[in-house]
Specification:
The structure is a homodimer. By secondary structure, the first copy, chain A, is an alpha+beta fold. In chain A, about 40% of the residues lie in helices and about 25% in strands. In chain A, a hairpin with a 5-residue loop joins strand 5 and strand 6. The longest helix of chain A is centred in the middle third of the chain and has 27 residues. Chain A starts with 5 loop residues before the first strand and ends in a 7-residue tail after the last helix. The structure holds a DNA duplex.
DNA sequence: AGGGTACAATGACATAAGTCAAAATCTGAT
DNA sequence: ATCAGATTTTGACTTATGTCATTGTACCCT
């Protein structure tokens, strides 16, 4: 039995309610299972897909952590998101039938692949699934709106505070500690996502640490004063 | 007969191929027409919808020009996009059944409203339409990725050059001049979208003007040297 | 266990873009 | 046509963040 090519089974999946099948009935999930593709392991540092790869499947993160990177011709890169358990990868590729960014595992991970052709067919006979999927696409648009707000209108401290609170909330939603977290990405990755340089991120973390909002030891972060941190997300935080 | 409440008819619409029905057969468009809601006029400065409004319809811009603005609690606002003829408004609202940004007409405009409930039903019986819509949602995600790149990794000059070229291309795609354009938005709007202050936008326009890339007279812009302008979009433009 | 490579922290300094202010221009209403 | 308010331009100055350089730390591989 090969871990790299295991059939996905949403029906018995522990994160079913965090993922694509959330809200579907047992029968519907069973139907979805019959159309699921394989399960796939991706080691830390490996690419799940790259710019230009033909688009065949959507991926649901089953375990682990990913980043998606948009590459600019002149070598610059922009991290457009970090994906954890239950989140979908590949939505950007539907438009052109090709992936337009790289997806890279930041720790040993596993994904469930969903053939998009089959998924669309299934959507035709399962209004619920299609509706959920429309919502997932819309949610991604909303998330990106919020990142635009962050990048376009916030100062560095606000950006980092938002980032940390968002990360904590996503952990909480997965029943993981939203107080102690280990960051899966480098300071440079955080900087890229937030439109800052790694030195700035490092300085801000030190500042939050010195001010007693966080305890930072390398990639281990402990949120000591969530309220105070949350206030730093906005201009008017006196 | 009231312009404010005219039945939409995609079948005879001049921008049919720029809009939602692009690529559909005549029969399919006919079916779509039967499910279209009303046509609606929006005067310059008016809101098509506001944050918190319940989501009932998607809107296709039939004529005119809109901006969408995301409001932050502390009063700051971020423009998340400018929409012209054939583009869809309201995609962000599917997720929560409520609009999460304001849509404001920047000139006298008209939109076609599409009841989303009916649209989803139609998608169930018309795979082509559903497929196109998935692509439209994905395209919006890609567009926002590119804005994130712009806001997160580019310098002010590059941002403005990108903005102008993008605008020109969208005009060209609509068979409008991509050389002479009149900007529908203020310098402040441009600045908000690009994460810059209006003074910076003004200075950059003056600079491009002085360098002979553009002719700028208020909101009339003429692109004199498209190639040179296109080069300014990237770091390595010596 | 040790040694090498990647990552992170910190200081000194540079600079792109922001801020504040004044003048110029445009626009729309009467 | 005229005026008032909105928008744009431009200048002088400030500042947040970037850049460069150094040292410190952690992690991975044999």
């Amino acid at each position: 039995m090969n871990l790299h090519d295991l059939k996905s089974v949403c029906g018995s999946c522990t994160i079913r309610e965090l993922c694509l099948p959330a809200g579907l009935s047992d029968e519907e999930v069973h139907l979805l299972d019959q159309h699921m593709d394989h399960r796939q392991v991706v080691s830390k540092g490996d690419y799940l897909y790259r710019v230009g790869d033909p688009f065949r499947s959507l991926f649901a993160v089953s375990s682990g952590f990913f980043k998606t990177v948009l590459l600019h011709e002149d070598g610059r890169g922009q991290i457009t998101g970090f994906q954890m358990m239950g989140e979908l990868l590949g939505l950007e590729a539907i438009h052109s039938d090709h992936h337009v960014c790289d997806a890279i595992a930041l720790e040993d991970s596993a994904v469930c692949a969903i053939s998009f052709d089959q998924f669309e067919q299934l959507g035709q006979i399962m209004a619920n699934l299609q509706h959920r999927f429309n919502k997932d696409l819309s949610r991604e648009i909303v998330r990106e709106h919020n990142v635009m707000m962050l990048l376009g209108s916030m100062r560095s401290e606000e950006r980092l505070a938002n980032f940390l609170i968002d990360l904590a909330d996503r952990h909480a939603h997965r029943h993981q500690s939203s107080v102690e977290m280990t960051l899966r990405m480098t300071r440079e990755d955080i900087g890229s996502y937030l439109g800052l340089k790694l030195e700035t991120v490092s300085r801000l973390l030190s500042r939050f640490h010195d001010e007693g909002l966080l305890e930072v030891r390398g990639r281990r972060v402990k949120i000591l004063d969530r309220n105070a941190l949350a206030l730093r997300r906005t201009e008017t935080h006196n």
